[in-house]
Design a protein that fits this description.
Layout lengths: L6 E5 L11 E5 L3 H5 L4 E8 L8 E4 L9 E4 L4 E4 L6 E4 L2 H15 L3
Antiparallel strand pairs: 1-2, 1-7, 2-3, 3-5, 3-6, 4-5
């Protein structure tokens, strides 16, 4: 399975969870990990409501979503690559740069 950093997927919840609670996630792992044989990647959830934090990145229809939303870099999750099969869209290079900055703030790294 080929994945790229910045791709957005609609992911079903793990078995045993409410199947109606699918959510959009954006792949934030470095490309080397996406290309590797590792079975999991790091993703950030996409929320419909913004809190105005510097760790949020605005996304919307132009990125493959149905409405304006935000990537929440404070809530990173590890997801099995096999669950990333409902592709919605991809972030532009400009938004990837904003995402990088938001991740630096969220992780408190330079």
């Amino acid at each position: 399975m080929s994945l790229d950093r910045g791709e957005i997927y609609l992911v079903s919840p793990p078995p045993g969870k409410d199947p109606k609670r699918s959510r959009a996630l954006v792949v934030v792992s470095r490309q080397t990990l996406c290309d590797s044989k590792a079975d999991k990647v790091i993703c950030a959830p996409i929320n419909s409501e913004a809190d105005g934090r510097s760790t949020e990145v605005a996304v919307g229809v132009e990125d493959g979503l149905k409405h304006k939303s935000v990537v929440n870099c404070d809530q990173l999750v590890l997801v099995e690559k096999s669950r990333l099969n409902n592709y919605l869209g991809s972030l532009s290079s400009k938004k990837l740069a904003v995402l990088r900055d938001a991740l630096r703030i969220a992780l408190d790294v330079e």
